[in-house]
Amino acid sequence: MSESNTTSHGGKRANAGRKSHYTEKTVVMRVPESKVMAIKEWLKPVPKDDRQNTIQLNPIHLQTELSIPSPLESVAAGFPSPAQDYIEDYIDLNKYLVKNPASTFILRVDSLSMKNAGIDAGDQILIDRKLNAEHGDIVLALINNEFTVKRFMQDKHTEHGFRFWLKAENPDYPDIYPHGEENIAIWGVVICILKKLK
């Protein structure tokens, strides 16, 4: 076979091969099989705290009234009989969702730190500034001029009364334990999650 008919296979090609996840040299280690999952979890990147310097809060404008029929009886499954007169009253969604229009705002969430509380990135929440935060409430907190949405938690301390902290409802995000030198304020209490299912 002449050299002109031979073809070259293999060899290093530009942009070929497995891409490295790291910018430095990697090494191979032998670890006990029972520790593999724990090490993989430890190596996962931890999301940074989701505090934001600026957020867009939209005030509520109650311009129209929207009344929805309210059933007379609760229904476990299915629908009540068409022959049954089950309409008792009507609910105005404005009054049902918003108790204090002048102090209520809408915020679009841009984080997954409250995912296990039913708040996904892109969801909108209603925040009432007039309400005082109680243990277990979801709040919009202002920490050193940075905003974050977390669950307000209180622990009782015998020496100093109550201590509060902010709980993330996603194990991938850190809880926030305020320090004495930090400037912290609870800006408002979340009263509703506006989530469209379809």
TrEMBL record:
Its EC number is 2.7.7.7. SUPFAM superfamilies: LexA/Signal peptidase (SSF51306). Residues 1-22 are annotated as: Disordered. It comes from the Bacteria. GO terms for molecular function: DNA binding; DNA-directed DNA polymerase activity; hydrolase activity. Residues 73-191 form the Peptidase S24/S26A/S26B/S26C domain. Residues 10-20 have a biased composition (Basic residues). CDD domains: S24_LexA-like (cd06529). One of its GO terms (biological process) is regulation of DNA-templated transcription. It is an enzyme of class 2 (transferase). Keywords: Autocatalytic cleavage, DNA damage, DNA repair, Hydrolase, Nucleotidyltransferase, SOS response, Transferase. It holds the Pfam family Peptidase_S24. NCBIfam families: PRK10276.1. PANTHER family: LEXA REPRESSOR (PTHR33516), LEXA REPRESSOR-RELATED (PTHR33516:SF2). Belongs to the peptidase S24 family. This is Translesion error-prone DNA polymerase V autoproteolytic subunit. It comes from Acinetobacter tibetensis. The lineage of its organism: Bacteria, Pseudomonadati, Pseudomonadota, Gammaproteobacteria, Moraxellales.
